[in-house]
Design goal:
Blueprint (H helix, E strand, L loop, with lengths): L7 H17 L2 H14 L4 H13 L3 H14 L4 H14 L2 H14 L4 H13 L3 H14 L3 H13 L3 H9 L5 H12 L14
Keywords: TPR repeat
Protein name: Tetratricopeptide repeat protein
Pfam family, one: TPR_16
């Protein structure tokens, strides 16, 4: 891409236009401003990454993925672009590549609970519950909640650790959402089901 001749003042105006559109959640105009910034600053990973975030808001998945690949090509160590690309691929169902990218991201940002949870969920969907246990245990330890408990309990169930899955689910709060989650996890799974009693719900 050929760099568009532009003054610092014009560049500042474009950046302001982009920021204002984002603040208004006017994603169409934000994308127009992002495209202008990309043309003015070709190969600038941060600008390309911001465009990808706008494409995400617009629901333009394939373009989002392609744009994030561009950002990583421009800056291979751009951790946020790697996380977003992994997330986009996960959304698109490309779980194997998503898992690899989440692993690479975690080598850069090892304490990111969201990445650990996403990695574990990818591995679960790839029928690799044993591999999912470590990241899901770390995710639940770092941010205990319904999402991490559900994923970890599923991995425990599918690796035959039924007592541990039951114990984890028993610690969930007494809410309708938690009850529905218990029912779903305890009655599903490729490696057998856990007998239920009303007291467990």
């Amino acid at each position: 891409m050929t760099k568009t001749a532009i003054s610092q003042h014009q560049l500042a105006q474009l950046a302001a236009r982009f920021s204002e559109a984002v603040a208004r959640q006017d994603w169409t105009h934000a994308l127009e401003a992002a495209d202008s910034l990309v043309a003015a600053l070709p190969g600038h990973a941060g600008v390309v990454y911001n465009k990808a975030l706008v494409l995400k808001e617009l629901g333009r998945g394939p373009e989002r993925i392609a744009t994030l690949r561009e950002a990583l090509k421009a800056a291979p160590d751009h951790a946020n672009a790697r996380f977003e690309l992994a997330s986009a691929l996960m959304d698109a169902g490309d779980l194997a590549e998503a898992a690899k990218l989440f692993e690479a991201y975690l080598s850069q940002v090892p304490d990111d609970t969201d990445a650990r949870l996403n990695l574990g969920q990818c591995l679960l969907r790839l029928d690799r519950p044993g591999d999912a246990l470590e990241p899901l245990r770390a995710a639940h330890a770092g941010a205990p909640g319904l999402a991490t408990a559900a994923a970890l309990a599923s991995a425990l169930r599918d690796t035959g650790h039924l007592a541990a899955a039951k114990a984890l689910l028993a610690d969930l709060p007494s809410t309708p959402e938690a009850a529905a989650l218990r029912l779903k996890i305890l009655t599903q799974g490729a490696r057998g089901r856990i007998a239920l009693s009303a007291a467990r719900l």
